[in-house]
Amino acid sequence: xxxxxxxxxxxxxxxxxxxxxxxxxxxxxxxxxxxxxxxxxxxxxxxxxxxxxxxxxxxxxxxxxxxxxxxxxxxxxxxxxxxxxxxxxxxxxxxxxxxxxxxxxxxxxxxxxxxxxxxxxxxxxxxxxxxxxxxxxxxxxxxxxxxxxxxxxxxxxxxxxxxxxxxxxxxxxxxxxxxxxxxxxxxxxxxxxxxxxxxxxxxxxxxxxxxxxxxxxxxxxxxxxxxxxxxxxxxxxxxxxxxxxxxxxxxxxxxxxxxxxxxxxxxxxxxxxxxxxxxxxxxxxxxxxxxxxxxxxxxxxxxxxxxxxxxxxxxx
Length: 316
Known about the structure:
Layout: H1 6-9, H2 20-47, E1 50-53, E2 56-59, H3 63-70, H4 72-107, H5 115-123, H6 130-140, H7 148-154, H8 168-183, H9 185-196, H10 200-208, H11 213-224, H12 226-241, H13 245-251, H14 264-273, H15 282-315
Antiparallel strand pairs: 1-2
């Protein structure tokens, strides 16, 4: 009996065509992202290793970082800005995100009337320009022509009013709460989307076990939305340590009063571009920007490689 030819028994697998159209569609976004984000980041990191020596740019290694942490004036400004930035972030974590979770939980309740209106009203401030928000709140809280004293007088609390934006001990908290008011809609909408995507079968099974109301939220819903809460925390961290616009609008580039609201963003602006009688120093500004990048990178890496793994282990 003749053996069949090996070549005849082999099946010919057709080669997959190269999908060049995917690269064509991705190319514009990649080029724009590279030009706007990647190249400026690389240039900033490179500039932090150079400085002006005898009128020309020369490679100085880590000398700029040594000066940033070794010079008494620069070090004092940097640590003050970092401390204020940390407080700014913690206020958002302790106030903005819990309020966002609570609002999302209430708005996701079945049968709530005007839920769409409430969602829109809470989310609208995030669409406003930070210039408008800062200017409006400066007018509201002004002791001279603001409406805050009159409103507090209507409820018998006028004695508690003060020039909060003008006091070093309260200015940072006040600006942080203004930022919370503007951006609380973002965590609310993200958590709301996570809540409404929970399968109905899971909730029905919980109801069959007698778990309803807020008990259902704490025992069933909250563990299921932990990944969303983690993402919101990372976005809050990155956004707060990149903050600049609202502080600049409300308190100026100096972060007044007396540096009480000076954060890394305003310190970077003054150092890089100069302000009033201070001359700009591009290499030192790039050094501060590099430190900011390393802080954000460390925080995001901590979440991705430590916290996120624990969340997954807790879920599954």
